[in-house]
Amino acid sequence: MTKTHTKRWDAATHLKSNEAIAAYLEAAIEDGDPAVVTAALGDIARSKGMTRIARKAGLGRESLYKALSPGGNPEFATVLRVVQALGLKLRAVPSK
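Now predict its structure.
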């Protein structure tokens, strides 16, 4: 019997364009689960370099990892700083 070898899928390796990043975050926000949004921000930050994003957001790298980790519960101010550091904007649109 042949064993199948798998490796963990990492969204960060697939987030190569600003359009892909924006679509990924938008889908996470539409999901409505804060944990999904936090995880998506973590994936995006890792795709762009966690140290670089932490520096641009004015946060320590370890603090950013902790805030965006599973079970992390970042303050809204932290989320806004990270979004800005990622070069993104949050927008409000009327719901359908």
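The two ends are 52 Å apart (CA to CA).
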